[in-house]
Write a structure and sequence with these properties.
Oligomer: single chain
Shape: globular
CATH class: Mainly Alpha
Strand content: under 5%
CATH architecture: Orthogonal Bundle
CATH topology: Globin-like
Distance between the termini: 40 Å
Number of strands: 0
Order of helices and strands: HHHHHHH
Number of domains: 1
Helix content: 55-70%
CATH superfamily: Globins
Radius of gyration: 14 Å
Length: 130
């Protein structure tokens, strides 16, 4: 990022680029053997919510909170068995989506760093429990 005053949302290119990232990401998630079974066949509503959440999470407009209230993302993920391996798989899918969209390498690192803490915070199941 060229300036500390610019949000990550702006640095990646705003709504158009974020939409491309999310749309590149979910086919990877659906195809992943550990992640795909956790998601509904109709992925479009999930894509829309993820777009809204990441817009807000990366410093853009508060689309998610405006539509659904406080994100409470850990609570929203509790019904799903999220293991450390699944958290890493999710991050791996995001890395590949960022590469596919052509996000600069330094921004890829920042994005994955920013998403890593929440991804691991959502872990609620050990590998042995699956």
């Amino acid at each position: 990022m060229t300036s500390s005053k610019i949000s990550l949302y702006e640095a990646i290119g705003g709504p158009e680029t974020l939409r491309l990232i999310v749309e590149a990401f979910y086919p990877k998630v659906q195809a992943h053997p550990l992640l795909g079974p956790l998601f509904p066949e109709d992925i479009d509503p999930v894509i829309d919510k993820q777009y809204m959440f990441l817009t807000q999470f990366f410093g853009g407009p508060s689309l998610y909170s405006d539509a659904f209230g406080h994100p409470m993302m850990r609570a929203r993920h509790l019904p799903f068995p999220i293991t450390p391996e699944r958290a890493e798989a999710w991050l791996g899918c995001m890395r590949r989506a960022l590469q596919d969209v052509g996000i600069e390498e330094d921004l890829q690192t920042i994005i994955i760093d920013r998403l890593s803490a929440p991804a691991h915070h959502f872990v609620n199941t050990s590998e042995e429990e699956t």
